[in-house]
């Protein structure tokens, strides 16, 4: 991670991705759950699972949960119920990322915090309740399934920047995916690629937080 562009006073707001930045994600738990219900080896599901067009449409609220699970039923070749798909779908949340419960309130004392996540309605319903205390540190949480736009599309970043009311150049954005980092930088944000549990803390220290 490069923190050379970060210094005390160089940001007016912080924008966080949720998955693998604030909330730990383990997709193997979904695979194991589905395989258990289907009576097949997890490897068979891993070999067939792709984040396809149905996945993207689900993340921007264009298709229903039932339609997305139907697409999974077809692509994965398993005959499990919607309830069983949902069980595995929400099993991916593996707790908070290390140290984030201490870092967020500390940062919130100095700068406004926001979140921007590519996600879907079932996940929102789940993590909004399960991690309500942690998410309370954010002034606003922008969700792809609510705004109809997803990272790394420029329109998505432009929408969130406008909603925040902060110049893009004064926002520091944290995300674990390289394509989202590139998209944010192309829209004028300062972006920190989170690839380890220490990256957020290092960036905040560089900002004087």
Keyphrases for this structure?
single chain, 209 residues, alpha/beta, 48% helix, 14% strand, elongated, HAD-SF_hydro_IA, HAD-like_sf, Haloacid dehalogenase-like hydrolase, hydrolase activity, PGP-like_dom2
Helix/strand layout:
Layout: E1 13-16, E2 23-25, H1 28-38, H2 42-48, H3 53-59, H4 65-76, H5 82-90, E3 93-96, H6 100-108, E4 113-117, H7 121-130, H8 132-135, E5 140-143, H9 144-147, H10 154-164, E6 171-175, H11 178-186, E7 190-193, H12 199-206
Parallel strand pairs: 1-4, 1-6, 4-5, 6-7
Antiparallel strand pairs: 2-3
Helix pairs in contact: 1-2, 1-5
InterPro entries: HAD-like_sf, HAD-SF_hydro_IA, HAD_sf, PGP-like_dom2
Keywords: Hydrolase
Protein name: Haloacid dehalogenase-like hydrolase
Structure characterization notes:
Pfam families: Hydrolase. It comes from Bradyrhizobium cosmicum. One of its GO terms (molecular function) is hydrolase activity. Keywords: Hydrolase. The protein has helices spanning 28-38, 42-48, 53-59, 65-76, 82-90, 100-108, 121-130, 132-135, 144-147, 154-164, 178-186, 199-206; strands spanning 13-16, 23-25, 93-96, 113-117, 140-143, 171-175, 190-193. It has 209 residues and is α/β, with parallel strands linked by helices. It has a five-stranded parallel β-sheet, sandwiched between helices. A two-stranded antiparallel ribbon has the order 2-3. Helix 11 links the parallel strand 6 (171-175) and strand 7. Helix 1 (28-38) packs antiparallel against helix 5. The chain is elongated, with a radius of gyration of 18 Å. The two termini are 17 Å apart. The mean pLDDT is 97.
